[in-house]
């Protein structure tokens, strides 16, 4: 039986489902090793749009896992934007269920998954460790689940999301116009 360190929120549970498929009929002996790798900090993840890249350290070797996530549907983007309100909207399990009940599933869809290891199995321990680490990160900050599906890019570029839905605690420096930002009062 899996421990509950990963996927204790509905948002993170989607990533645990990639590792612990409901179609699996017997225990996977790689899952405890994958959970241990994630728990021990052996997975370093970087995000590049809808691409998750991870370096997984196991023993003396490092394997690189690349996961391409499909973009979120326009309907789901619109429903999330409609549901979010306030300056710092909370992404709760209730919000997840409300959006899913409205007919817009939030579970990510993976376009492709690849690992640099020589394993001859369709799902290696490195890939499984990345799923668990993603679940842990998303449990801590559900915005990652939306970001990796392109929600913030789609809502900012498409104009569907209200400004408060994309509010962040930081502003990218390259988004500021120095001429408009630095003015001298006369």
From TrEMBL:
InterPro entries: Znf_SWIM. Keywords: Metal-binding, Zinc, Zinc-finger. Residues 96-135 form the SWIM-type domain. One of its GO terms (molecular function) is zinc ion binding. The keyword DNA-binding does not apply. PANTHER family: SLR1429 PROTEIN. This is SWIM-type domain-containing protein. It comes from Nonomuraea zeae.
């Amino acid at each position: 039986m899996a421990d509950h360190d990963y996927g204790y929120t509905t948002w993170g549970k989607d990533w645990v489902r990639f590792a612990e498929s409901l179609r699996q009929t017997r225990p996977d002996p790689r899952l405890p090793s994958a959970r241990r790798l994630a728990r021990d900090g052996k997975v370093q993840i970087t995000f590049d749009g809808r691409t998750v890249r991870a370096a997984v350290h196991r023993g003396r070797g490092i394997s690189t896992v690349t996961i391409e996530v499909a973009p979120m549907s326009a309907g789901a983007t619109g429903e999330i934007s409609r549901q979010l309100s306030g300056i710092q909207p909370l992404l709760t399990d209730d919000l997840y269920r409300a959006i899913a009940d409205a007919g817009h599933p939030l579970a990510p869809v993976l376009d492709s998954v690849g690992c640099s290891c020589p394993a001859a199995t369709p799902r290696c321990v490195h890939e499984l460790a990345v799923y668990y680490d993603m679940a842990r990160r998303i449990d801590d900050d559900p915005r990652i689940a939306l970001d990796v599906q392109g929600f913030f890019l789609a809502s900012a570029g498409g104009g569907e999301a209200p400004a408060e839905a994309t509010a962040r605690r930081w502003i990218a420096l390259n988004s500021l116009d120095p001429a408009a930002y630095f003015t001298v009062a006369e």
